[in-house]
């Protein structure tokens, strides 16, 4: 579903997003009727506003480098900006990537100075101060979690950019994607056995889905980079470069940015 445009970038909601809102609202209602419902929904909306700001950090930096942003999509597992391409210059990829978590840490820094009043958990739960506290923690977690070196998460892209200063681009991507897949695989296992190792009461299914998604997205992007390298090599061999413009007729798949 299309929401509105920000600086020309279309913001979209995945239909499963409404399932999340319904689930959260119902949970809040069960806990404390209207106060619980309103507070829970407000918390989720505040959280996703921060997700959008994170994606705008990536997107506006990308636009400065002349890269087209197709859309920002919000899903229950988080947000995703879709770009036409990604800069091959490591410094540009680094800047474009770090801009996302930097937004989260800026919010954390700003909220640090907001006085929360009494540090009483019961009072905080359904109050504005409680909301501020949730947003503070959420941004801290979001900023740190995205910096995990699990390509194509932000940390993984930073790893690729660092490797690309020493290695050919495709090899750098292979290494970053491999590290990412190991971490994502571990993430799925840990999320599923969380109750057995005493982390939580129930398996963290959403986290397992998120890590599976990271695993698949890493492989897809590695393959896309590989395909392009092969194509580029092929076209370099073709003496008649007049044919090159024809390549642009099919729209390449977008580069996904969590
Ligand atoms: Zn990000």
Number of domains: 2
The radius of gyration computed from the alpha-carbon positions, rounded to a whole number of angstroms, is 21 Å
Shape category: globular
Spell out the helices and strands N to C.
EEHEEHHHHHHHE
Residues in β-strands, percent:
5-15%
Report the biggest beta sheet as strand number plus sense, adding barrel if it closes. Answer: 5 strands, mixed
Named once each, the bound ligands are: zinc ion
Strand count: 5
In whole angstroms, how far apart are the ends?
19 Å
Low-confidence stretches: 244-249
Q: Which percent bin holds the helix content?
A: 55-70%
Strand arrangement within the widest β-sheet reads 1-2-3-4-5
Mean pLDDT: 87
Report on the structure:
This protein is α+β, with helices and mostly antiparallel strands. The chain folds into two domains: 1-146, no CATH class; 148-258. It is built from eight helices and five strands, in the order E-E-H-E-E-H-H-H-H-H-H-H-E. Strands 1-2-3-4-5 form a five-stranded mixed beta sheet. Helix 2 (90-111) packs antiparallel against helix 5. The longest helix has 49 residues, at 16-64. Mean pLDDT is 87; it is low at 244-249. Bound molecules: zinc ion (ZN). Zinc ion is lined by residues 54, 58, 100, 146, 154, 257-258.
């Amino acid at each position: 579903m299309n929401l509105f445009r920000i600086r020309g970038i279309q913001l979209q909601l995945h239909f499963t997003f409404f399932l999340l809102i319904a689930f959260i609202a119902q949970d809040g209602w069960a806990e404390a009727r209207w106060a619980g419902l309103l507070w829970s929904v407000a918390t989720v909306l505040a959280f996703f506003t921060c997700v959008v700001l994170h994606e705008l950090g990536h997107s506006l930096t990308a636009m400065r480098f002349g890269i087209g942003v197709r859309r920002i999509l919000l899903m229950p597992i988080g947000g995703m900006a879709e770009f036409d391409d990604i800069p091959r210059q490591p410094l540009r990829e680094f800047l474009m990537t770090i801009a996302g978590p930097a937004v989260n840490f800026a919010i954390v820094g700003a909220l640090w100075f907001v006085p929360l009043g009494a540090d009483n958990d019961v009072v905080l739960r359904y109050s504005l101060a409680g909301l501020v506290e949730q947003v503070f923690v959420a941004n801290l977690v979001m900023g740190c979690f995205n910096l995990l070196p699990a390509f194509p998460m932000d940390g993984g892209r930073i790893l690729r950019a660092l490797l690309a200063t020493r290695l050919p681009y495709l090899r750098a991507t292979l290494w970053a994607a491999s590290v990412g897949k190991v971490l994502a695989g571990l993430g799925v296992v840990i999320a599923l056995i969380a109750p057995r190792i005493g982390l939580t009461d129930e398996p963290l299914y959403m986290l397992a889905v998120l890590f599976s998604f990271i695993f698949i997205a890493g492989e897809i992007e590695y393959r896309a980079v590989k395909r392009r390298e092969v194509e580029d090599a092929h076209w370099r061999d073709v003496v008649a470069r007049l044919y090159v413009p024809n390549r642009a007729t099919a729209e390449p798949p977008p580069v996904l940015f969590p």
